Amino acid sequence: MKTIRTEVAVIGAGTAGMTGYRAAKADGKQTLLIESNVYGTTCARVGCMPSKLLISAADAAHMLQAAPTFGVHPGAVRIDGKAVMARVRNERDRFVGFVVEGVDAFPAEDKLHGHARFLSPTRLQIGDHTLVDAERFVIATGSTPIVPDDWGAAGPRVITSDDVFYWDDLPESVAVAGTGVIGLELGQALHRLGVRVTVFGRGASVAQLSDPEVLDLARSGMSDELDMRFRTKLVKVEPKGDGLAITSEDANGNRQTEHFSYLLSAIGRRPNVDKLGLEHTGLERDHHGIPLYDMLTMQCGTSAIFIAGDANDEIPLLSEAADQGRIAGDNAARWPLVRPGLRRTSLAIAFTDPQIATAGASFAELCVTHAGRFAVGKVSFENQGRSRVMLQNSGMLRVYAEFNSGRFLGAEMIGPRAEHIGHLLAWAVQARMTVDAMLDMPFYHPVVEEGVRTALRDLAHRLANESIHDDPCVDCTPAP
């Protein structure tokens, strides 16, 4: 077994790992990038990019169905599942190719393949072939979709989102477990492509929403199109014929057994830290085994070990992984003189229809940090001009600001063009703008963003009349 010595060892070559590697190299440190699996980020290979390819196909099918409402009558619609999945895979492979080309450009001596495991705070063993002695480390090992053991025992028809993008054709039916972003995006897309879909949720949550009014509207809106079973658990999953027999139980204890081609487990992801030998590092860890770390420096305790991306189970988004990786790599290079890095305003988007976006502080967070000290403004898109023109007039935007200062704090939304509106509102939060300053900005006509102005005007009115408005959190309970 050979031994390699380096200044910085980065474990994992996904988004966080690659940005961490580049940051450490930019600071002039000898850096080794270690990967146990294939190169290519989760986003490019089985995440955000292939899912948007599938959603785009679904949007095309949906527009043909909606066209008669505009007086446009297309001919018979035929969805070619093999062609849909061929485009998804081909375009996905192009995106992965770009990532792999980037890794290929790294010097060969900077890359090492194999599973890494800590033997001590300063030593790793890579597979059965190499020992790595390093002064500092970045853990960027990503995450894995969760599949309960009893579901997995039913065989290969129980899948995760990773598996969907390797299909050659669309199946007849899919049961989706989970009402988070992944479950809703894929469930709705498959439904619009002609797959029989049922979405099961143990609670009543929808994506990342916590505002009770927006959440209620999202539940009803998604249920109008999809077979949504909230507060329903899967109690038995068994192989049967060419698919699965799935038994569910609702909140009243009623059970039913149905047949599906596949069960898609979209109940969350688990950080890949359990096989890293972290017990040999001396790091303090939480009850999930994840090292405790500083969210501004990514440093684990006072050690020379930093953690970034999905591995720390904070915010499983590519943009966050990139920022965290950059901070971790930079601080690993400059250790022990670490410094806080830029953590941007929170922004999360679900590419459902209508889209869902949250920017800045959520309603639930404000009920903890600003209880009785924030106002809420809102707008419905039902009668918003441009939204009605496009026949996308459903949804709601709720915006939040701090009493006295008038500072804009955040927003939650389901509605048209939420991916763009979310960006505008996140920028306003990060710029620490007041509501009055936001209302001074230009608004064109007719655009969906005029709905933002309506919500901000409502918010400004409520800020100006603080004494007559109740605390919005008084009757609020945490989102299920």
From TrEMBL:
- Gene Ontology MF annotations: dihydrolipoyl dehydrogenase (NADH) activity
Please state every residue range assigned to the domain named FAD/NAD(P)-binding: 7-325
Pyridine nucleotide-disulphide oxidoreductase dimerisation domain sequence ranges: 349-455
Which cofactors are required for activity?
FAD
Question: Which E.C. number(s) belong to this protein?
Answer: 1.8.1.4
> What is the top-level taxon of the source organism?
Bacteria
Keywords per UniProt: FAD, Flavoprotein, Oxidoreductase
NCBIfam families given in the database record: PRK06292.1-1
Q: Name the protein family.
A: Belongs to the class-I pyridine nucleotide-disulfide oxidoreductase family.
Instruction: Write the protein's name.
Output: Dihydrolipoyl dehydrogenase
